[in-house]
Amino acid sequence: MENYVHSLSRELVEMGHEVTVLCANEPKSKKDDVIDGIKVRRLPYIGKIANTNITPQLPLEILRDDFDIIHTHLPTPWSADWSAVVATVKRRPLVLTYCNDIVGDGRAKKIAQLYNHFNLKYLLKKASKTIIIQPNYLNTSLHLERYEKKVVAIPVGVDLERFKPLGTSTNGNTLFFLSVLDRFHRYKGLDYLLFALSMVAKEVPDVKLIVGGDGDLLGHYQRLSDSLNLGKCVEFLGYVPEEKVAYYYNRCDIFVLPSISTAQEGFGMVLLEAMACGKPVVCTEIVGVAAEVTKEGAGITVEPSNADELAKAISHILQNRSEALKMGKASRRLVEEKYGWKQVAKRVEEIYKEVNYPPLK
Asked: Same domain for 52 and 125?
């Protein structure tokens, strides 16, 4: 979501709009800053609830701004809820980017249910427009159907200059997976990828999986890898700095995103980034760009939570080099045609013009 906001805001600034981003001061940095022409105000937070920073100053900070439009995002309920309240008080249009439903396990599930029953209904009612980042989400979400007339599908974008083929050499059988490795992102399906890898290794002995990301489940995944005797087949990088991400996309032969939850997987921005680097991809059918991956021949889509099918797809690409090369070229071509941030920002600007009164100049 942070990358989404940064990239979209940068393009809007280049189009002549004035953009201010309010966010939590994590990691701690200067309170105020200007990044790529975007005014950034970082607010202190007192803790987190379900991975959402609680910033007590937020409502006052929004109230004191003289804005034409406020654009907020879910799943960050604290900031989204206060944005709706202030938009109502100031009689300004509210645009909501709805990445995915808010769900949880255990205690978090009960909190999510209460939120969805009360706060979410208010938020969706007050939003002038709700942007979903894949069309199918209108059918799979438990909460959007009654607001269908206000919902529009606009995908996430990708920085085509930052993410591009670099010609980095590999050993020919390298897979890459990138995510935050915490319990809130378990839906990315790394467990299933490790099970699939244990099968692939029997057919492709020199296969290597590079796992990028850190979090409280890193130890869990390392232990699972060891229990599957994958010690030499898996490299856990830990946190990958932003400036190194494109390098690792280019270093791999296949990027894999085996997401398992339709409720939690909004789009899969990392898939676009890998495709922009000219890589064939393997993903599940619930990922936002999955249908086009199949249609354009950019990779293989599989059913969620199916390690056998995932293993077969990976093995097929690794063992068919000429087909893999064609898939990589199709990947780059697809993102160039449909997913550059400039195209995405123009569509968001159209929404701003539609909801704003008086009209944007």
From this structure: yes
The total domain count for the chain is 2
Give the tens place of pLDDT for each residue, 50-81: 778 999 999 999 999 999 999 999 988 999 99
pTM of the entire predicted model: 0.83
Is 114 domain-assigned? yes
Both 328 and 347 in one domain: the answer is: no
User: Cβ distance 77 to 102 under 8 Å?
Assistant: yes
> Do 206 and 317 belong to one domain?
yes
Q: Which long-range contacts (CB under 8 A, 24 or more apart) does 236-239 make?
A: 236/211, 237/210, 237/211, 237/212, 237/213, 238/212, 238/213, 238/214, 239/213, 239/214
20 and 152 assigned to the same domain: yes
DSSP tag of 166: -
For tokens 């090369």, name the residue: 325
